[in-house]
Design a protein that fits this description.
By secondary structure, the chain is of the alpha+beta class. It has three domains: about 5-30 and about 45-85, Double Stranded RNA Binding Domain; about 115-215, PmbA/TldD superfamily (PmbA/TldD fold), CATH 3.30.2290; about 225-445, no CATH class. The protein has nine helices and 20 strands. The chain is globular. Belongs to the peptidase U62 family.
């Protein structure tokens, strides 16, 4: 059945069954992935997906159901399952759907419809150039190109009818450098809405340089060190602790930011935005998955906490309006609070110049153990790390087998400088995260 007709029939039957309000969330997507190994296609996937979920209010409670088919019998399936689910649901907030607002146009340069042959050739080119780059490049573990485009649509019985298209291209390369028995890895990636923005030569250089420059790494004595958290590591750490800004997490006691709106919680250097209109970012959108209009908001401005992020339910609990941050991991998933594009606003100091100004510091380039070594509630973290030692304004040696420990809330307070080298991290899960490199007054480092 044609989609709009299916939705009309679904709403008609739902009203007959006693639903007071209904909302449909629909997605369809196409994705392509190729991975090259030794100049041959090692992995090749082409997928088409579509699905529809129904949220329906029955006797003051909300029920859910979903389907991947759009036939007459699927309407009855959705009605039955949504009603049964509603009868089993308990909620402390009367559910409601959004009727619409003032929506800002999203300017996106989407171009992912690239010939398959070209994408395979580009991936092969990356692998070939990496192996030619330096004799110490021993192998290329991953050489991946991934493109996808999609459409999402939200329609409800309160008059909401929204639709949006999206597209993303990802290029990723991971290499291994070897010098006798010393083996090190390096990687680089690009995420963009326009495939033509990918500079494959730059990705190869970044990955190979990272691996080669890490050869000869060793641990350093334990102690307190000034730390330059490189942009990719900083973005990863922000993503790990981003839930502390969720209004839902604050209400449930999973964040220490309760009652901190309008108060200083970070260094004057720190401004954090949630920006759904960031250009060339994978999570940009003009409405969230509840149909609420999105807007750019300062979560922290000059160190002061300005707002939490809300979906409709958590906003209602606090007596405020949703910030347009209600999202689903998939059409089958419930709505949760999530950022769009959350990032630390860049400063003006150049990365290389910042290094020259350091008498003694550690540059942290990667963090491991984020799932087990970081506590988003308390803010505490203890993470394995790698990077470089800086002495008298120069990088003197690569560093490994160290652990950095601290507290994210304290780290925000101890930021001395925010640099100008902004970058979005590789997407994982919901939302996108970015940061420039940041200089932290000191962190505990455990080494040899």
């Amino acid at each position: 059945m044609e989609l709009n007709k299916f939705i009309d029939e679904l709403f008609k039957r739902g009203k007959e069954e006693g639903f007071s309000d209904m909302e449909v969330y629909y997605i369809d997507s196409d994705s392509f992935e190729v991975n090259i190994y030794n100049q041959e296609v090692d992995k090749y996937n082409v997928n088409k997906n579509k699905g529809l979920s129904l949220r329906a209010i029955y006797e003051g409670r909300i029920g859910y159901a979903y389907t991947e088919k759009f036939d007459e019998e699927d309407i009855e399936f959705l009605i039955k399952n949504a009603k049964n689910n509603a009868l089993e649901t308990q909620t402390d907030v009367i559910p409601e759907f959004y009727s619409g607002g003032q929506y800002r146009e999203l300017e996106m340069d989407i171009n992912v419809d690239i010939d398959t042959k070209k994408k395979i050739e580009d991936a092969m080119y990356m692998e070939r150039r990496a192996k030619e780059y330096d004799s110490r490049i021993d192998s290329v573990n991953y050489c991946l190109i991934d493109t996808g485009k999609g459409r999402r649509k939200i329609v409800n019985t309160r008059g909401l009818n929204l639709e949006e298209e999206s597209g993303v291209s990802v290029a990723y390369i991971a290499v291994v450098a070897k010098d006798k028995d010393d083996v090190k890895s390096g990687s680089s990636f690009k995420v963009t809405s326009n495939y033509n923005n990918i500079d494959f030569e730059k990705l190869v250089k970044e990955a190979c340089d990272e691996a080669i420059n890490s050869l000869g790494a060793e641990s350093i004595p334990s102690g307190k060190y000034k730390v330059i958290l490189r942009r990719d590591a900083a973005a990863t750490l922000l993503a790990t602790f981003s839930s502390i800004f969720s209004g839902d997490a604050v209400q449930k006691g999973f964040s220490l930011l309760k009652g901190k709106i309008g108060k200083k919680i970070a260094s004057d250097k720190i401004t954090i935005l949630d920006d759904p209109f960031l250009k060339d970012a994978p999570s940009s959108c003009f409405f969230d998955d509840e149909g609420v209009e999105t807007y750019t908001k300062e979560v922290i401005k000059d160190g002061v906490l300005k707002t939490y992020l809300y979906d409709i339910k958590s906003a209602k609990k606090d007596g405020v309006k949703s910030t347009g941050n209600g999202f689903k991991a998939s059409y089958k998933s419930p709505v949760v609070v999530s950022p769009t594009n959350m990032y630390i606003v860049k400063g003006t100091l150049d990365y290389e110049e910042a290094i020259k100004r350091q008498e003694r510091a550690i540059i942290i380039t990667s963090l491991q153990g984020l799932h087990s070594g970081a506590n988003p509630v308390s803010g505490d973290f203890s993470l394995a790390a790698e990077g470089y030692l800086v002495e008298n304004g120069s990088i003197t040696k690569p560093v490994e087998q160290i652990t950095i420990a601290g507290n994210f809330y304290k780290l925000l307070e101890d930021v001395e400088e925010v640099l100008s080298d902004f970058e979005l991290a590789l997407p994982s899960g919901m939302g996108s995260y970015g940061s420039p490199s940041i200089i932290i007054k000191e962190l505990n480092v455990s080494g040899k």
